[in-house]
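Q: You know discrete backbone vocabularies at least as well as I do. I have my own habits and do not want them to colour yours. No explanation is needed for now; the record alone will do.
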Amino acid sequence: ALELIDFRNALEQFQNLVEKMISQKTKESSGLYTKDDDEMDYEKFHTTTQTLFGPAVKDQNIQAFFRKIISNPDEKPEWLEIFGCFLGESDGTSSPSKESVVFLDSEKQQITHSVVKRKDVIKGIVKVPLLHFTVTASQRGVLTVFSKQRKSFFSYCFYFHQDTAWITGCDFLPNLKYVVAVTESTVILWDYKSKERQNNGFVIKPMKNCLLCVSTVTTPGHLAKDTILMGDDKGYVYLLTMTNDDFIMKQSKAEKESQFKFMDSESFDMPKRKLHDDWVVKIKYISALKRFASCSTDSVSSFVLDDINRLEDNLPVKEFSVPKGVNAFTYCGKAKVIVTGG
């Protein structure tokens, strides 16, 4: 009971500390703040927090919490974030079983082939079970197919040369056998099977808004075409259907030194519908439900789950709201639940 009282007292003091930080930052932004001896900087914040909670808080969590307050004082973090989301260390008395752990080190396999350079990051990774390979896309334009054969990995790489546009997501077209990726202003289609280093990619442009995510619609029985879902920074969801004929009929003449062929976005029938009032962070077609799902940082239309035909009409869509929006989601067929993270 005494420990509980002490913690509540420490928590109250910590919340007062956060309020002071927010007030100071707000005044600084409005130009009304005057520095004095009572100014709260990171060193004071770190020392005070450690004094209140002791070893229960880690340096990296204090730093992350402080950074959140400084970057956006209007949306202060929850107090429990100061303790992080880490499991306690094991005392070594019990051995973990497969049911009690997520990853077993002995079952990991490291791929030593480097596909991204310094200051580059992976923005998308997609597993293709039927073909036993994995597709990755880096922010600066490296598309890679890792294929596992005879217990070893080999890869195909394609580098999309660009000036400023970054890749924001990728997926695989199972029928056309192309890798699809989106940048801020284009749609990339890569023929990973082509032996040519040049002219083995197609780019659809221009896209009016910034594309943020992409997903393939997987439906049986359509061997000659694939449908692509995309979301942008204005809340729109796009529907793009492609066939083999499109790669022949709709390509424009490219420059001699270009590594890809261009296709005009205006030549495609591309239905779109505004489903959110903020960024579409993730989009996915859930085959088991025969529905597409999209999520957004929008607090009103945070998550949409409906038939793909809703993108071509104006009928109401099934949606629900979450404060501060939804950043991620997944579907579990065994449990028949959708889990969202905000």
